[in-house]
Amino acid sequence: MHCAILKAEAVDGARLMQIFWHDGAESLYPAVWLRDNCQCSDCYLHSAKARKLLLEALDVNIRMDDLTFDQKKVYITWPNGHYSEFEANWLKKRCFSQEARAGLQGELFLPECQYWGSELQLPTLNFEDVLNDDDHAYKWLSSLKKVGIVRLTGAADKRGEIIKLGKRIGFLYLTFYGHTWQVQDKIDANNVAYTTGKLSFHTDYPALHHPPGVQLLHCIKQTVTGGDSEIVDGFNVCQKLKEKNPQAFSILSSTFVDFTDIGVDYCDFSVQSKHKIIELDDKGQVVRINFNNATRDTVFDVPIERVQPFYAALKEFVDLMNSKEYKYTFKMNPGQWITFDNWRLLHGRRSYEAGTEISRHLEGAYADWDVVMSRLRILRQRVMNGN
User: Fold this and answer.
1) 171 and 247 share one domain
2) Does the reported pTM lie above 0.90?
3) Do residue 79 and residue 166 come from a single domain?
4) Domain assignment present for 110
5) Number of domains in the chain
6) How do beta strands 180-183 and 149-153 pair?
7) Is there a single domain that holds both residue 92 and residue 225?
8) What is the CATH number of the domain that holds 81?
9) How far, in Å, CA of 213 to CA of 365, rounded?
10) Which ranges of 290-338 would DSSP assign to H, the alpha helix?
11) Where is the Gamma-butyrobetaine hydroxylase-like N-terminal domain (predicted)?
């Protein structure tokens, strides 16, 4: 009876529909929204789950002509004789109350975020289980969304395994470095990752206007000494920076920084973008970090008096990342993966010695968060329904 209708009536001159539910809750629905979302076959293409009704045909001042109901449905007739039916469950889910809207947004976008520091217990799953079992795949992607990183074990230590993981999600994200790329020491490297030097904390590819959301890294070969991976929860560090130095947080979340990447790989490229290092949503919450010191451009499009304060703010942010309290260090072994949120985590690598042969080899790829979230929603539905 949770979504059973007790009473439904037109109010405010038939511009609103009010529903009283059996559980004691009440809901209001604007007539214009109801007409816009009519579920009949003339107004809605059910095979595509898409609206057919054109906005040009919508009367934004429309009123209901007649309204009837039973426990499971509401039935509305409009002034031109058009008829609509709305199921109780469908309406209850789309209630305009703040509580209902927050609940539905949570269900759609799964915003729960578990912050961590050096105490991180790295979520770990088996690679083959993730490929072949929906429950494990759901645990993988839900942990990736919540914690920001998941380790997978048990893969073969050879190239090409990453394609399997890409297909499990849907498809990989093509960049100027290809669908996949090889992280190893290279002569005349076109990226600092393709050297043996230390990599400071960074997110990948802020030189793109839409940096890839998820990164996949598969360890094929690992050096005996050095080459340890370092990660830090950027959202956690942002929160600490805001508490410790609100002015520095404000500078980094309001200053546009130029990033560039020029070279040849999958094809030749000359990429340029502008990002705030700490990107906020309309509620002031951190939603993405854009920072790679290697590709931060020499061009800096700010008035001269803002240059030194920016550097001071950025230095404090980086110093926080590098403090023992927040960073987590580990070493990848052949056959292991890390999959992580490139908008949230910053990652780095300790240096290792160059040799006559390749001593460390990772294969990497990117995925877009839209693709990952699509698969996560589908898996969530399957697991919840027991399919």
Assistant:
1) yes
2) yes
3) no
4) no
5) 2
6) unpaired
7) no
8) 3.30.2020.30
9) 11
10) 307-321
11) 14-91
Maximum distance among all Cα pairs of the chain, rounded to whole angstroms: 83
How far is residue 167 from each of residues 109, 162, 179, 367, measured CA to CA in Å? 22, 9, 12, 11
Q: Tell me the C-alpha distance between 280 and 345, whole Å.
A: 15
Domain extent, residue 379, equals 124-386
Burial of 210 (0-12, 13-18, 19+ CB in 10 A): exposed
Residue with tokens 């645990």: 139
- Asked whether residue 259 is assigned to any structural domain, the reply reads yes
Q: Are residues 88 and 132 in the same domain?
A: no
Task: Let me know: does 337 contact 218? Beta carbons within 8 Å.
Answer: yes
Q: What is the pLDDT along the chain (387 residues), one digit of tens a residue?
A: 478 999 999 999 999 999 999 999 999 999 999 999 999 999 999 999 999 999 999 999 999 999 999 999 999 999 999 999 999 999 999 999 999 999 999 999 999 999 999 999 999 999 999 999 999 999 999 999 999 999 999 999 999 999 999 999 999 999 999 999 999 999 899 999 999 999 999 999 999 999 999 999 999 999 999 999 999 999 999 999 999 999 999 999 999 999 999 999 999 999 999 999 999 999 999 999 999 999 999 999 999 999 999 999 999 999 999 999 999 999 999 999 999 999 999 999 999 998 888 899 999 999 999 999 999 999 999 999 986
> Are 263 and 205 in the same domain?
yes
DSSP one-letter string for 197-214:
S-EEEE-S-TTSSS--SE
Question: Which residues have CB under 8 Å from 306's CB, separation 6+?
Answer: 251, 255
